[in-house]
Amino acid sequence: MKHSRKTFLQLLGAGAIASGASIFPVNSAKAAKPDHALTLGLASYSLRKYSLDQTIDIAARLGLTHLALKSMHMPLSSTAEELGYFARKVRDKGITLYGAGVIYMKNENEVNNAFQYGKEAGLEVIIGVPNHDLLPLVNEKVKETGIKLAIHNHGPGDDVYPSPESVYEKVKNLDPRIGLCIDIGHTIRIGLDPATEIKRFADRLYDMHFKDVDKAQPEGATVEIGRGVIDIPGIVKTLKKIKYSGVVALEYEKDADDAIPGLAESVGYVRGILAK
Fold first, then answer.
1. pTM for the full model?
2. Residue 182: strand pairing partners
3. CB 175 within 8 A of CB 36
4. Considering the domain boundaries, does residue 28 fall inside one?
5. CB-side neighbour CA atoms (13 Å) of 168
């Protein structure tokens, strides 16, 4: 019965999404105590086998108010007119198109294109991976456009930015709008505690990829949030403590062809933790 409480939260949370019901009764005494709210969003790579229209609809049905699009949903080769069209599709559904990525930048043209793309789509943040030698150009582009860059860590096997610290050390002396997108799954797969890394680099944390994995080892694979080894309640507590103001972007990489059940369960579990 070790996981009975976790299973209860998963089932209750998923059911609440479908019904629109509140998961827990409101305690008036606790409700009066100020609490830092977190914003739940979606990294659209979760729905990479679905169309943009389907992705927007699923996000809306799950009550996810913020969306970061991956290139299969908003191609990097899009014209300004096309980018405006994609952005309106999202925003007309009442969802904030706040970001895009992960965008790799391996040469100057890719840096210039990424920031032009972000500007024309009206993005607040680009989730990216620029080569180290391109950071001076990235710094100029951030100053020019006002768009934040959140550099994503990819864990074991990544020679560019394996850990949050590897990002921070490269950007700490650059424009303060250049920071981190901490992927908690990749962070634990490299043997680090995500909550500790979040606290260490809170001043430059601009985005998150929020997921769970089945083991804290390089071969760890994504599972439904709440079923894996990551201390999700502890991370939520840490995010509230540091008053994190970015988006908690759920990234569900499992079941690409049939992602909705697992994604819905994951959203329900996180909402259950937030509502406790």
1. 0.87
2. 208
3. no
4. no
5. 14
Separation of first and last alpha carbons in the chain:
21
pLDDT at position 13 over 50: no
The number of beta carbons lying within 10 Å of the beta carbon of residue 58 is 19
Q: What is the pLDDT of residues 118-158, one digit of tens each?
A: 999 999 999 999 999 999 999 999 999 999 999 999 999 99
Q: What is the dihedral of CA 62, 67, 68, 72, to 10 degrees?
A: 70
**pLDDT tens-digit series, residues 46-92:** 999 999 999 999 999 999 999 999 999 999 999 999 999 999 999 99
The DSSP string of 125-150 is EEEEEE-GGGHHHHHHHHHHH--EEE
The CB density around residue 108, as the number of other CB atoms within 10 Å, is: 11
Can you tell me the distance from the alpha carbon of 97 to that of 65, in angstroms, rounded to the nearest whole number? 9
- State the CATH number of the domain containing residue 56: 3.20.20.150
Flag whether 264 is in a domain. Answer: yes
CA dist., res. 167 & res. 20, Å (int): 39
Alpha carbon distance 75, 183 (integer Å): 23
Quick one: which of 186, 191, 233 has its CA closest to 211? Answer: 186
What is the tally of structural domains in the chain?
A: 1
List Cβ neighbours of 26 (8 Å cut-off, separation of 6 or more).
Answer: none
Residue 29 burial (10 A CB sphere; 0-12, 13-18, 19+): exposed
In a domain, 27, yes or no: no
